[in-house]
Amino acid sequence: MPKLTFAMNVTVDGYIAAPGDDLGWSGGEGPDSSPGDELFQWWSDRVAATGLSLYGRKLWEEMSSHWPTADEQPGATPAVIEFARRWRDMPKVVSSSTIDQVGWNTRLVTGDAVTEITRLKAADAGPMDVGGATLAGAAMRAGLIDEYVLVTHPVLVGGGTPFFAAMDSWVNLRLVETRTFPGGVVLTRYETR
User: Fold this and answer.
1) Under a CB-based contact definition with an 8 Å cutoff, are residues 150 and 9 in contact?
2) For 134-165, b where at least 16 C-beta lie within 10 A, e where not — what string?
3) What angle do CA 166, 169, 172 make, to 5 degrees?
4) Residue 161's closest CA among 55, 5, 11, 56?
5) Are 72 and 150 in contact (CB under 8 A)?
6) In sequence order, what are the beta bridge partners of 92?
């Protein structure tokens, strides 16, 4: 059965987006913005190693508004070009009842997201990532997430969209990796036990 991972940039106080869905604290997009090349390359390599990425609507809209053509923009760096191509090529599933079409190697699912994630895990689609607070929260509550990766940025935003959803019971974790990136960004990776 493939591993399902929830990996996101997160603030020290536990948010993946500040109030108003503001992501400015994460340094923007591309390797020329803080926290720099090393972290951007880590995310790019992660996309290359992912067999299937599962998106909720909001994160899908954020990603699909930029990455499909990022490699065609004036001044696109080699790292941005590589990431954009990797992102377009990676198979994706978007779970939404409010949009009616997707593109870029993506399939839309309008039914129950937990049922679809369970089916995909049983089909062994390879390593899978889940992104977006609502979709990841549903997968958390269903006990479907095998690994949590927090890329913690040294900032407090005081509110917004939390990384972790309200849970019905405890989930015991085992720390499997820590890594520090320039600018004080710390990656922690946990497996469920």
Assistant:
1) no
2) bbbbbbbbeebbbbbbbbbbebebeebbbbbb
3) 105
4) 11
5) no
6) 53, 106
Architecture of domain 4-122+133-143+157-192: 3-Layer(aba) Sandwich (3.40)
**How many CB atoms are located within 10 Å of the residue 75 CB?**
7
Q: Where are the domains of the chain?
A: 4-122+133-143+157-192
Amino acid at site 75: G
List pLDDT tens digits, range 52-65.
Answer: 999 999 899 989 99
Residue 152 pairs in a beta bridge with 10, 186
- Backbone φ and ψ of 76, nearest 5°: -60, 125
Q: What is the pLDDT of residues 110-143, one digit of tens each?
A: 999 999 999 999 987 789 999 988 999 999 999 9
